């Protein structure tokens, strides 16, 4: 190909990237390593990945990252995609990841994106005057099974001396569960933002309790196929470094970051801004502390706690260890 043709091809690729909204690294990154990461919910804690894409942090690490939204019907489908290696990584909360791990196709958490700090909670109908978790006894409570909402519900019920047997559990996706409270279809629901925030705009809906009132038990994370971690450590480490740069950018340039994250999530900037206080983003320093040791509040501690609770409620029936789910080799020192 002559120089004129090369120049024309390059120009066309840039135009295509601008039209489609693809990051430049995917349009001209012939020498970049492709990495597919899937996510199944517009949770703002994942949004710094859009910053890393737009600012070229992945490209700087030699990676062409495709962040793919997939409307999974349940978390098992996401785990199946990982196992089939149709994606390289997925946004799995630690509690959720304990349920679907298999020794024959293992994955591991390589870093945490954030912890929920008010972004998950229980919505209730105001007319029912539900004042405590104990008041949920005998009520219809919606949540999506095997998700952090289901986990949070069981944790809070246990704290109140109840179990899932004391309520009527209604399995609904997070978005539908949040909307069902205001519609009067259920008495209460457990959900997460942006659906939680949106539902609270209904004057007939109240927030009973949120993760602002609990220990840090909902830890969001990126999990990667373990064979990829072992065979391509530079890919794993590059993802972590790019993420850390994106979180640092968000902290120092919040207005610019808000615009980028809103575009990526296909939400209005004011919606994203309203959801940001509901979680705490984890960068280099936060992940270093999270992955250190095995006590309460650490990645291993949270995973072990989740394994114990899921086992008690009968949803985890196969052996899995916290150490199976955590891999700290890619963390930035």
List the helices and strands and how they pair.
Blueprint lengths: L2 H18 L3 H5 L4 E7 L8 H7 L2 H4 L2 E7 L5 H9 L5 E3 L2 H7 L6 E10 L3 E6 L14 E4 L4 H12 L8 E4 L2 H9 L5 E5 L2 H5 L5 E6 L8 E7 H6 L1 H20 L1 H12 L3 H7 L3 E3 L2 H7 L8 H14 L9 H4 L8
Parallel strand pairs: 1-2, 1-3, 6-7, 6-8
Antiparallel strand pairs: 3-10, 4-10, 4-11, 5-8, 5-9
Describe this structure in words.
With 333 residues, the protein is of the alpha/beta class. It folds into 2 domains: 24-116 and 217-325, Periplasmic binding protein-like II (D-Maltodextrin-Binding Protein, domain 2, 3-Layer(aba) Sandwich); 120-213, D-Maltodextrin-Binding Protein, domain 2. Helices cover 44% and strands 19% of the residues. It has 16 helices and 11 strands. The protein has helices at residues 3-20, 24-28, 48-54, 57-60, 75-83, 94-100, 148-159, 174-182, 195-199, 226-231, 233-252, 254-265, 269-275, 284-290, 299-312, 322-325; strands spanning 33-39, 63-69, 89-91, 107-116, 120-125, 140-143, 168-171, 188-192, 205-210, 219-225, 279-281. Strands 2-1-3-10-4-11 form a 6-stranded mixed sheet, with helices on both faces. A 5-stranded mixed sheet has the order 7-6-8-5-9, with helices on both faces.
């Amino acid at each position: 190909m002559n120089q004129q043709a090369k120049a024309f091809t390059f120009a066309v690729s840039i135009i295509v990237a601008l039209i489609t909204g693809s990051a430049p690294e995917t349009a001209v990154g012939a020498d970049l390593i492709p990495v597919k990461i899937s996510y199944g919910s517009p949770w703002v804690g994942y949004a710094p990945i859009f910053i890393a894409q737009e600012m070229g942090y992945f490209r700087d690490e030699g990676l062409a990252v495709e962040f793919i939204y997939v409307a999974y019907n349940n978390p098992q489908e996401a785990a199946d995609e990982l196992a089939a290696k149709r994606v390289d990584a997925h946004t799995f909360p630690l509690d959720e990841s304990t349920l679907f791990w298999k020794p024959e196709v293992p994955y591991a958490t390589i870093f945490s994106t954030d912890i929920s700090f008010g972004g998950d909670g229980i919505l209730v109908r105001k007319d029912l005057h539900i004042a405590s978790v104990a008041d949920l006894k005998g009520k219809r409570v919606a949540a999506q099974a095997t998700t952090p909402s289901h986990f949070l519900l069981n944790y809070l019920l246990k704290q109140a001396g109840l179990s899932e047997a004391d309520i009527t559990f209604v399995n609904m996706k997070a978005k539908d569960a949040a909307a069902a409270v205001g519609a009067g279809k259920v008495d209460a629901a457990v959900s997460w933002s942006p659906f939680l925030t949106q539902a609270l705009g209904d004057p007939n809906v109240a927030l009973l309790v949120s993760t602002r009132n609990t220990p840090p038990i909902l830890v969001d994370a990126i999990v990667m196929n373990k064979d990829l971690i072992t065979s391509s450590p530079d890919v794993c480490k590059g993802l972590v470094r790019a993420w850390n740069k994106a979180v640092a950018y968000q902290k120092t340039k919040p207005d610019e970051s808000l615009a980028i994250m809103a575009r990526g999530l296909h939400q209005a900037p004011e919606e994203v801004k309203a959801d940001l206080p509901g979680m705490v983003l984890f960068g280099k320093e936060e992940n270093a502390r999270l992955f250190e040791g095995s006590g309460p509040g650490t990645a291993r501690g949270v995973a072990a706690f989740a394994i114990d609770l899921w086992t008690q409620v009968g949803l985890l029936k196969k052996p899995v260890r916290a150490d199976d789910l955590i891999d700290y080799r890619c963390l930035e020192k």
